[in-house]
Write a structure and sequence with these properties.
The chain is of the alpha/beta class and about 450 residues long. It has a domain of about 55 residues. The protein contains 19 helices and eleven strands. It has a six-stranded parallel beta sheet. Strand 2, helix 3 and strand 3 form a beta-alpha-beta unit. Helix 6 crosses helix 7, helix 7 packs across helix 17 and helix 17 runs antiparallel to helix 18. The longest helix has 23 residues.
Length: about 450
C-alpha cells in the first residue's frame, strides 16, 4: 500500500487504446475515495505518440469535468513513468485485428478446425508469443524499477500471460478480465433479477469456467435449480455449443460458443469455420469495397453492419470527446465495469471487499482438482495485504480434465519461451485437442514464424 503522504502513482501502459483507457479514466474519475484528500498521479504510456496525446487530452478534460484532482502525465518511455509506481496496468497489443485474422486463418490453411483463434487452440500460440515479447519486458522493468508495485494484466491470452509473468519474473501480479459479466448478464436474463443482488461465483480458467454458487444472499436460497430449469425450457437462452457443453459436462459458465470453443476439438461442429470478423461475414453491395478487419470488428461491437456503422456512426460521441470537439456531460462519465480501479481502492484503503473474478496461480488449491501451477480465474477478497482467492468446490471431473490440459499447454509455452525452444512449442501444439496432424502442426509452426518474424525478435 502506498504511503498516505506520498502521491499514489498509477501507470497505464497501452494508454492509446480508446476502448480500455476511456473506461478506466471514467472509473478513476468516479472513484472519489481514491483521490479525495490524496495526491494521485496517472501516467499514460504508449509508443503511438498521436494516440497517446489524444488520450492525454481526453483524460485532462474528463477529470476537469468530473472534478477529479488527478495529475495526468504522458510519456512514450515507460522507464520514466515506472519508478515509484504503486500500480501498473498493462493492456497492450500490436496490429490487433490484422494479426488476429492471420492467427485465425493460418491454422485453417494447415488443416486445423479451430474457432476464434485468440485465447486457445493453435491460433493463440502466436498471439501468445507476440504478446510475451511485449509484456515480459514490461514486467522485467516493473521488477527492476518499482518492485513493490502491483501489476494488473489485461493483455490476452490472459491465462498464458499471467502464468508467464508469475513464472518468469518476481513481480506481484494478477490478471483481470470482464468476461465474468457475460455469465452475470445471462443470470439476469434468465431469472429477471439484478446480478448485483445475488451471490454468483464461478471458477475455472479465463473464458473457460463454471458456476459453483448462485444464491439469494438475503434468504440463502439456492437459485441454481430454478436457473437451470428455466434454461432447459428455452433453447434461445443459450448458444448451441454452450448448451451442449452444459448437457454433456454439467458446466454452465462463459456463455459464448466462440470463447469456450477455443478449448475443445468439436467446437467447429456448432460454430463453423468462418472468422467472426471476416470478409465472409460482410454483405457487399454493387460497387461497395470490403471494409478492413477493424471496421468489421467495430460493426460487431456495436451490433450493426459495416454499412450501418458508417451510416449511424455509433462511436461519434466518443470520437468528438476524444478530439475535444464536444464537452463532457455527466452522462458521458459512466463506470466501465472493469475491476482495476475497485481493486486498487480495496488495496489502498484495506477495504477487504469481495470481487467476482481475479486471475491468479492455483498455488493455494483454490480449485482443488486443478494443478497448483495453473492460472485460474476465481472470486477473491481484496485488502491491503493483496488478493485472497475464494476456495471453490472441485469442478466436474471431465471439465477439470480439459482445464488441466490447457494448464499443461500454458506451462509448455512458457517454458518454450524461457528456452526459445521450438520443440516445446511443437509439443504444446501436439497435445492441443484441436490439432489432429503432427505434420500439419510442424508446417503451421514454420509458417507462423516466417510470417510473423517481425513481431518475434527474440526468436531470430
Amino acid at each position: 500500500m502506498a504511503d498516505v503522504e506520498a502521491a499514489l502513482r498509477i501507470v497505464l501502459i497501452g494508454a492509446g487504446s480508446r476502448e480500455f483507457s476511456s473506461g478506466l479514466l471514467a472509473d478513476l474519475a468516479l472513484e472519489r475515495t481514491l483521490h479525495r484528500g490524496r495526491r494521485v498521479e496517472l501516467w499514460l504510456v504508449d509508443i503511438d505518440e498521436a494516440a497517446l496525446a489524444a488520450m492525454h487530452g481526453y483524460a485532462v478534460r474528463l477529470f476537469a469535468a468530473a472534478g477529479a484532482e488527478i495529475a495526468v502525465r504522458m510519456t512514450t518511455r515507460r522507464e520514466e513513468a515506472l519508478p515509484g509506481a504503486d500500480f501498473v496496468l498493462v493492456a497492450v497489443e500490436l496490429r490487433r485485428m490484422e494479426l488476429w485474422e492471420q492467427d485465425f486463418r493460418l491454422p485453417l490453411a494447415h488443416g486445423m478446425r479451430h474457432v476464434y483463434g485468440e485465447n486457445g487452440g493453435p491460433g493463440a500460440l502466436f498471439h501468445t508469443l507476440r504478446n510475451f515479447e511485449i509484456v515480459l519486458p514490461i514486467a522485467n522493468d516493473v521488477e527492476r524499477l518499482c518492485p513493490g508495485a502491483t501489476l494488473m494484466n489485461f493483455t490476452n491470452p490472459e491465462a498464458r500471460m499471467l502464468k508467464a509473468i508469475l513464472t518468469l519474473t518476481k513481480v506481484k501480479a494478477i490478471g483481470l478480465c470482464h468476461g465474468f459479466y457475460e455469465f452475470h448478464r445471462l443470470v439476469e436474463k434468465v431469472l429477471g433479477r439484478r446480478a448485483g443482488d445475488l451471490d454468483i461465483r464461478t471458477a475455472g480458467m479465463n473464458h473457460f469456467f463454471s458456476c459453483y454458487r448462485l444464491r439469494d444472499p438475503a434468504t440463502g436460497e439456492d437459485l441454481k435449480p430454478e436457473f437451470e430449469s428455466r434454461l432447459s425450457r428455452d433453447d434461445s437462452m443459450l448458444e448451441p455449443l454452450t448448451r451442449y457443453f452444459w448437457q454433456a459436462f454439467g458446466v454452465l459458465g462463459y456463455p459464448s460458443d466462440h470463447h469456450i470453443g477455443e478449448y475443445v476439438a468439436f467446437a467447429h461442429e456448432f460454430v463453423g469455420l468462418e472468422w467472426l470478423f471476416g470478409i465472409e461475414k460482410q454483405s457487399l453491395g454493387p460497387g461497395q469495397g470490403p471494409a478492413d478487419s477493424n471496421l468489421r470488428f467495430s460493426a460487431w461491437h456495436y451490433k450493426t453492419s459495416v454499412a450501418g456503422l458508417m451510416r449511424d456512426r455509433p462511436g461519434k460521441r466518443r470520437d468528438d470527446l476524444l478530439s475535444g470537439a464536444a464537452a463532457f456531460e455527466a452522462a458521458d462519465i459512466v463506470p466501465s465495469g472493469e475491476l482495476a480501479v475497485p481493486v486498487m481502492t480495496d488495496i489502498v484503503f484495506d477495504r477487504g471487499l469481495f470481487r467476482q473474478s481475479v486471475n491468479v496461480l492455483n498455488d493455494g488449491l483454490y480449485v482443488p482438482n486443478l494443478d497448483r501451477d495453473a492460472c485460474v480465474e476465481i472470486p477473491a477478497t481484496v485488502d491491503a495485504r493483496g488478493v485472497h482467492p475464494d476456495t471453490a468446490p472441485a469442478l466436474p471431473a471431465a471439465f477439470a480434465a480439459q482445464v488441466r490440459l490447457q494448464g499443461s499447454i500454458q506451462g509448455l509455452i512458457v517454458e518454450a519461451y524461457r528456452e526459445r525452444s521450438r520443440k516445446l512449442l511443437l509439443q504444446a501444439l501436439l497435445i492441443d485437442p484441436v490439432v489432429e496432424s503432427a505434420r500439419d502442426a510442424e508446417r503451421f509452426l514454420d509458417a507462423g514464424f516466417k510470417l510473423q518474424a517481425a513481431y518475434l525478435p527474440s526468436w531470430g
